[in-house]
Design brief:
The protein is an alpha+beta fold and 450 residues long. The chain contains 11 helices and 23 strands.
Length: 450
């Protein structure tokens, strides 16, 4: 019996080893013209028809809130049972501790770290009945699972921070439910999630004060981000405002700037206000954008190549964060996670595990470009339309598996891209099309409210 040469065996095995492959633009099946909004808009018969008025959007938002997946911070005074909050925070702490995370040093988080966290949470001082106070975010914030800025990853390799819950835009209202022992962290609830934030980044206020601040003429940021300045000469940079941020309009001035009003924190920790400035040609819109296919596809493409960051890590977006950012420019409130987002709006279709590819493809011809979202629990995409018999989407994605010989390579993407739904075909998990479970149209179920 002839033996295989060690050199040939080594060559064969090396060809079977999984590889980490960096994305090159564009992805297979995508040309540069497909990466432009104009291509998809020109295919539409009525791209400028307003699909929902303000009344219709309010109806859609009510339906989302009634499902319990979006919380209206200012809807009414809220009483929260302290025992429920205490139990929830204890359970969360135990669950996180059980995951055996490692810190930014690559070493396991120590028992002393966990003792300090539990002491800092000060759960024994949660009252039986909580009458929450209100606050407003002074800048873009990271909502944390625990009151710490320590990073927790699941292995010694580069990972996402597992303590990160989500990011919160500047100038958003929150309910303050609890304070840490040193009062340097607050446990808050915003419209899409709850978690810990640094107390210095929240200004306390009465409910009516923040409601009045939000119920005034405003502009909404339509670019990926724009700069906010503290002086009319635009020399004092204050912060970046991400897409979807609402900013209260100030006095009308002619010249090179737009006057706006931003919240600040007084010496006593309470809410105050100051004038700030935007470039006169900054990408903002007076009030929310009209809900048309042209506008929403344009907004989606403004995020093309925007980096991926789980839960807003690195001031980036994940798949559902990208969807949130797009629809927020129209005043549409969506839940935080892909599972809940795929319960919003109208059900167009759903697929079982054994639904054939041809049936899936045929069903997607009923999808409405620009206002259809599709995916499965764990991932969500923005539907662009059909071209040459293939369905295309825009998505923010970390990566995909790609089959090669007897193994699978990891195709690292790490940003917002255009792809067709065949991406991932041949891998163990299957293509995007084969993994779809839900397709929704972002319109209210009760269209008679429009």
């Amino acid at each position: 019996m002839r033996r295989l040469s060690p050199y040939l065996l080594l060559l064969f095995l090396s060809g079977c080893a999984p590889r980490f492959i960096y994305y090159t633009s564009p992805l297979p099946g995508v040309t540069s013209v497909l990466e432009t909004p104009e291509f998809w808009i020109e295919k539409l018969p009525h791209p400028d028809s307003v699909l929902l008025s303000g009344r219709g959007i309010r109806a859609l938002n009510r339906e989302t809130a009634e499902r319990g997946t979006y919380f209206d911070v200012l809807e009414k005074d809220t009483i929260i049972y302290g025992g429920d909050l205490k139990d929830a925070l204890y359970k969360q702490l135990r669950r996180i501790k059980s995951k055996n995370r490692v810190s930014h040093t690559g070493l396991p988080l120590s028992q002393s770290f966990w003792r300090e966290i539990e002491e800092k949470m000060d759960l024994g001082n949660i009252a039986d009945t909580i009458s929450p106070s209100y606050g407003i975010t002074l800048k873009g914030l990271h909502l944390r699972a625990l009151p710490t800025n320590e990073v927790a990853v699941s292995s010694r390799s580069c990972e996402f921070d597992k303590f990160q819950v989500t990011s919160v835009r500047p100038f958003e209202p929150v309910l303050i439910l609890h304070r840490s022992r040193e009062k340097d962290w607050l446990y808050v609830k915003c419209s899409i999630a709850e978690g810990w934030v640094a107390a210095e980044d929240i200004a306390r206020c009465m409910r009516d004060t923040v409601a009045s601040f939000l119920d005034t003429p405003f502009v909404v940021v339509t670019a990926q981000e724009i700069a906010l300045y503290g002086d009319r000469d635009l020399e004092e940079f204050l912060m970046w405002l991400p897409m979807g941020t609402r900013v209260k309009l100030g006095e009308i001035h002619s010249g090179e700037t737009i006057s706006v009003i931003m919240p600040i924190k007084g010496i006593d920790g309470k809410l105050g206000f100051r004038e700030a400035f935007l470039l006169n040609n900054a990408d903002v819109h007076l009030g929310y954008l009209p809900y048309t296919q042209r506008n929403i596809i344009n907004q989606a493409f403004r995020l093309l190549s925007f980096p991926y960051g789980r839960g807003g890590t690195w001031n980036a977006d994940d798949c559902s964060g990208t969807i949130l950012r797009i629809f927020s420019c129209f005043g549409i409130n969506l839940p935080r996670n892909s599972r809940e987002q795929l319960g919003a709006g109208l059900r167009l279709t759903s697929f079982g595990k054994n639904t054939k590819t041809k049936e899936r493809t045929r069903a997607l011809y009923r999808a409405v470009p620009g206002i259809t979202i599709l995916g499965w629990p764990g991932h969500i995409m923005f539907y662009l339309g059909e071209y040459a018999g293939r369905h295309y989407c825009l998505q923010n994605i970390w990566g995909m598996k790609k089959r090669r010989w007897f193994t699978e390579d990891f195709l690292y993407i790490g940003k917002t891209v255009v792809s067709d739904l065949s991406l991932g075909r041949g891998s163990r998990r299957g293509s995007l099309l084969e993994r779809l479970t839900k397709v929704r149209v972002v319109l209210p179920i009760n269209m008679s409210s429009e």
